[in-house]
Amino acid sequence: MVFYFTSNVVSPSVTLFMGADKHENEDLIKWGWPEDVWFHVDKVSSAHVYLRLAPGQTIDDIPNSVLDDACQLVKANSIMGNKMNDIDIVYTMWSNLKKTPSMEVGQVAFHRDKDVRKVKVAKRSNEIVNRLQKTKKEAFPDLRQERENRDRSEREDKKKLLREKKEKEKEEEKRKKEEQELRSYATLMRTENMSTNYDGNDSDEFM
Question: Where are the domains positioned within the chain?
Answer without folding.
Answer: 2-141, 143-188
